[in-house]
Design goal:
Number of helices: 18
CATH architecture of the largest domain: 2-Layer Sandwich
Number of domains: 4
Radius of gyration: 34 Å
Number of strands: 22
CATH superfamily of the largest domain: Histidine kinase-like ATPase, C-terminal domain
């Protein structure tokens, strides 16, 4: 029997390594930009075409490479950061394994142009599928330019698994934002298909956050600073009222390297425990500076996971630092040139001399024990005075039935519909009979549940879940037949989106038009809303509807593995359905129930919970001990 174990060729081995390091165009962007940062560049330009499938180009003004380095950098495990195994535990740079360039060269056509300051001529290296096609000197500017063309051109199966351009572009923007946040002192620009999406000048971390996510983020940030013997923490967290239902604005950096850490994320959520509503996620951009010997960053191919030597102490420090910053923000605003605009209302502009002490007025002639000639107590206030009645109720002054009736008669009436309709004796019997036969009566409990009598007992319907189910099936039908009716806006409104949400909107635009939305792009990250589905009604905030739709869509995508059309129908149904606490007329309740039972799945909500429950007469009798 012949031998069956063989060594793989370098090209195949590099393609296997590329499967771990380069999963999509965004992975190549991350590796190339991090190499430019390690080269000492302070200006980095990123150019992509077709969401990185056709071209990824990174141009920097770093130190450049010699002729030998330009050739050797494409070899496996070639690195400038590690000389011995102990160096793995003292790493403060980005790329260090020496696999990125070899992996990218194995699955793409790469052109490298580089020149050092001390060299007269630069070097050009052209590689296709790990094979050097050409190498020659050329007059170049200082720094390095790397072009990655036709990613996965020699692995068609991997290329077929890439998503649409808008999806892949969102991943590139996410990687770009993480790197730009970690290095606010570096100029970054991002160009996509000749359009400049980002132009980020060097500045402070707060300025970088505002430039990346929008000017309105200036009012959402709370600074965090903590220095200990174990770690140093600095950055910003978001105010609780601006928390979102979706993830995506949570950034952890350890020694300026972006990481994902559910354990530390739990520490942040714990700090927000008493001020954050459930199922929402706050914004945070936090930097942890720690001794590299206390962590291990070589536990994941993309280096986004870290092991800590003392994770419990880090958890406690992080939690207390965030909690203290949230508390300090509410008490003592900072006084500097970067002061948030919301602080100005907390600082009085009056001089101390103008502040007046509060005054108290009282009746010096008041005597609670004063009596008249017949021995009766004299009231010191008018009997009809509402303030007096309030005193009587609070301190327990005896009242006669007339005054008690007068007080209770002025209490606010309960707005809830009565559970049982009442009829007067002089009502026409024919009217009552016709009403019971032709129009069934329904009732609301706490404006949340609809109660209806059925033959075997009672039926309870969750009005919000029922309406979501009705709208979900209705919107799915609109997406299938492209017949969603639209309601034109008299005054079109504009909505400003983040770059990632703008790309998401581009991807959803055909389906949104099928539902009845009329949207068109206006500028780099702005859309004009010219119409909304007619089912939403006229008294809705168009901008909030679209924002909530995008948030729900991203939330469903993170939690549920469903296709885009179903996700969109589910998101719009959730954002436009009636909410708990909405008072409904009898006709509205009747119409809701009729439409619910016309659905394909009336018993189950879009979240998998029941919409209807019944209570039989036998169950009621058992509750009252009659069985």
């Amino acid at each position: 029997m012949s031998d069956i174990i063989q060594l793989l060729s370098d090209s195949v081995a590099n393609q296997i390594a590329a499967g771990e390091v380069v999963q999509r165009p965004a992975s190549a962007v991350k590796e190339l930009v991090e190499n430019a940062i390690d080269a000492g560049a302070d200006r980095i330009k990123l150019i992509v075409k077709d969401a990185g499938k056709t071209l990824i180009q990174v141009i920097d003004n770093g130190c450049g490479m010699s002729v030998t380095d330009a050739r050797v950098c494409f070899e496996r495990h070639a690195t400038s950061k590690i000389r011995k195994a102990e160096d793995l535990f003292a790493i403060r740079t980005m790329g260090f394994r020496g696999e990125a360039m070899a992996s990218i060269a194995a699955i793409a056509q790469v052109e490298l142009k580089t020149k050092r300051v001390e060299d007269e001529l630069g070097t050009v290296v052209e590689i296709e599928g790990s094979k050097v096609v050409n190498q020659y000197p050329e007059a170049l500017s200082n720094g390095t330019s790397i072009c990655v063309k036709n990613l996965f051109y020699n692995i068609p199966a991997r290329r077929n698994f890439l998503k649409s351009n808008s999806v892949e572009m969102r991943h590139i923007i996410e990687e770009f934002q993480r790197i730009a946040l970690a290095h606010p002192n570096i100029f970054f620009s991002l160009h996509s298909d000749t359009n400049e999406l980002f132009h980020l000048s060097p500045g402070s971390l707060k300025q970088r956050i505002v430039h990346l996510f929008g000017n309105n983020y200036n009012q959402k940030l709370v600074p965090v600073e903590e220095e200990t013997t174990i770690i140093n923490i600095n950055g910003f967290v978001g105010k609780p009222e601006f928390a979102k239902k979706t993830r995506g604005e949570q950034f952890f950096f350890v020694n300026k390297r972006f990481i994902r850490d559910p354990y530390l994320h739990h520490a942040i959520m714990n700090a927000y425990e008493e001020v954050l509503s459930t199922e929402t996620f706050p914004l945070y951009v936090l930097f942890i500076d720690i001794d590299p010997s206390k962590i291990d960053i070589n536990v994941h191919p993309t280096k986004t996971e870290i092991k800590y030597e003392d994770d419990k102490s880090i958890y406690a420090i992080l939690r207390s630092a965030v909690k203290r910053s949230l508390g300090r923000y509410n008490i003592t605003p900072s006084l500097d040139f970067d002061q948030e605009t919301s602080f100005s209302g907390l600082i009085s502009s009056k001089p101390l001399e103008e502040i007046q002490m509060p005054t108290i007025t009282f009746n010096p002639n008041f005597n609670p024990f004063e009596i008249d000639e017949e021995g009766n107590k004299i009231k010191q206030y008018k009997s009809g005075d509402s303030y007096a009645r309030g005193i009587e109720r609070k301190i327990g002054i005896p009242q006669n039935w007339d005054s008690l009736y007068e007080i209770t008669g002025q209490e606010e009436e309960d707005k809830q519909l009565p559970l049982i309709p009442t009829y007067h004796k002089d009502d026409d019997d024919d009217i009552i009979a016709n009403s019971n036969e032709s129009k069934k009566l329904f009732f609301q409990i706490h404006n949340r549940y609809i109660v209806s009598q059925i033959h075997s007992g009672l039926m309870l319907i969750d009005q919000q879940a029922a309406h979501e189910r009705i709208l979900f099936e209705q919107y799915k039908a609109h997406l299938d037949d492209n017949k969603g009716s639209s309601q034109q806006s008299l005054f079109p409104s504009t909505i400003e989106l983040s770059s990632a949400d703008f790309e998401l909107m581009n991807d959803l635009l055909p389906e949104l038009h099928s539902l009845g939305f009329q949207l068109r792009p206006f500028g780099k990250t702005t859309y004009i809303i010219e119409g909304i589905p007619a089912d939403l009604g006229s008294n809705v905030n168009e901008t909030k509807v679209v924002e909530q739709l995008l948030e729900d869509f991203k939330n469903n995508k993170a939690e549920l593995k469903i296709d885009k059309r179903e996700n969109l129908a589910r998101s719009l149904a959730k954002s436009s359905a009636i909410k708990d606490g909405t008072k409904l007329s009898n006709d509205a309740m009747s119409d809701l129930i009729d439409k619910l039972f016309a659905c394909e799945s009336p018993n189950v909500s879009i979240h998998g919970r029941p919409t209807i429950t019944t209570i039989t007469l036998q169950e009621l009798m058992a509750k009252f001990g009659k069985i």
